[in-house]
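Justification of computing resources. Each target in the renewal requires a structure prediction run like the one illustrated here; the chain below, 151 residues long, is used simply to show the kind of job we budget for.
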Amino acid sequence: MKVHELGHLVLYVRDLERSRRFYRDVLGWSEVGGDVPLGVPAAGFSSGRTHHELLLIEVGQDAAPIPAGRRVGLYHFGLKVGEDDDDLREVVAHLRSHGVAIEGASDHTVTHSLYISDPDGNEIELYVDVLGPDQWGDPAAVFAPIRPLRL
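Resulting structure tokens:
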């Protein structure tokens, strides 16, 4: 067996409409046809690469929150948002205009990355690649020390 690509991500959310607005209006995902017929409130989104890359399923306001600190499970997921630092600067301005806090900014050698959280506390990395594909397999680059990002 060989994995060909990461296909999609499914997130449980407390309030579907709030999360729908965040992923659609702030992050710019295209919604796939409105409500998903799962028997529970849900919405699908795509960047246009495939049928859907993100599915949100509402679990209600009383759902347990994501635990803080080190824990087993999802740490964050990354979304490529452009080709260079100029694109990342535009993302900073866009996030600020929507009142989204930037929680971190890192130079990972292979990427320049911003970190934000969605309305339910899922951490999201917004990044641009800064090394070419011929360097992606270099462990010295992929696991290089993290430095502060200066845009």
